[in-house]
From TrEMBL:
NCBIfam families: protocat_alph (TIGR02423). Keywords: Dioxygenase, Oxidoreductase. InterPro entries: Intradiol_dOase_C, Intradiol_dOase_core, Intradiol_RC_Dioxygenase, Protocat_dOase_a. This is Protocatechuate 3,4-dioxygenase subunit alpha. The keyword Hydrolase does not apply. Belongs to the intradiol ring-cleavage dioxygenase family. The keyword Oxidoreductase applies. The gene is pcaG. Residues 40-177 form the Intradiol ring-cleavage dioxygenases domain. Pfam families: Dioxygenase_C.
Length: 189
């Protein structure tokens, strides 16, 4: 058996993409509620790389509370029956790097806290998924009081606040470079 050099660690053998595009997307994954239903809003945006080019094969997961701020803990997120809101969805981007979710406007999970979407990004070149948040812009007092947002400088903070539109919200994601989206690290990640 050959001697190993102490202190050296193996490098990753594979990144998280783009192979996920063959197995992870599923029909209706981006529809947490049916588009056009009374409570539906649209969350959409574009995913960009460090050079400002669109990423045509990223995959996003969305986690959120319902309109009342309740974090849904029911099983069956992959089964879309058109009635049950599960608080989770998955969407692939198109060739222009654009993603869309049909969902509900999340409520704040605690009084005085801002409403938000939690987003996970899988994309080529990443050795692990990335986590971020898209805060809703309407409640400026709650945004100002949020511990994460208040710890950031104004330019970083702006990367986490979605833009309101007539049918919902736009949230662009920049993986690197100018106006890079702030990404989070959770315990155990």
């Amino acid at each position: 058996m050959a001697d190993r050099t102490p202190g050296l660690v193996p490098t990753p053998g594979q990144t998280v993409g783009p192979f996920f595009g063959y197995a992870l997307p599923y029909v209706g994954g981006d529809e947490l509620v049916p588009p056009g239903s009374a409570r539906a809003i649209r969350l959409h945006g574009t995913v960009y790389d460090g050079a400002g080019d669109v990423i045509p094969d990223a995959l996003l997961e969305l986690w959120q509370a319902d309109e009342d701020g309740t974090v849904v803990q029911a099983e069956g997120s992959l089964d879309r029956d058109g009635w049950t809101f599960t608080g989770w969805g998955r969407a692939s981007v198109d060739w222009a790097g654009h993603y869309t979710f049909s969902t509900v406007r999340p409520g704040p999970t605690e009084p005085g806290r801002p409403a938000l979407f939690m987003i996970t990004i899988f994309a080529r070149g990443l050795t692990n998924r990335l986590f971020t948040r898209a805060y809703l812009p309407e409640d400026s007092a709650a945004l100002d009081a949020d511990p994460l947002l208040s710890s950031l400088d104004p330019d970083e903070r702006a990367t986490l606040i979605a833009v309101a539109e007539p049918t919902g919200y736009r949230f662009d994601i920049r993986l690197q470079g100018e106006r890079e989206t702030v990404f989070l690290r959770y315990p155990g990640h």
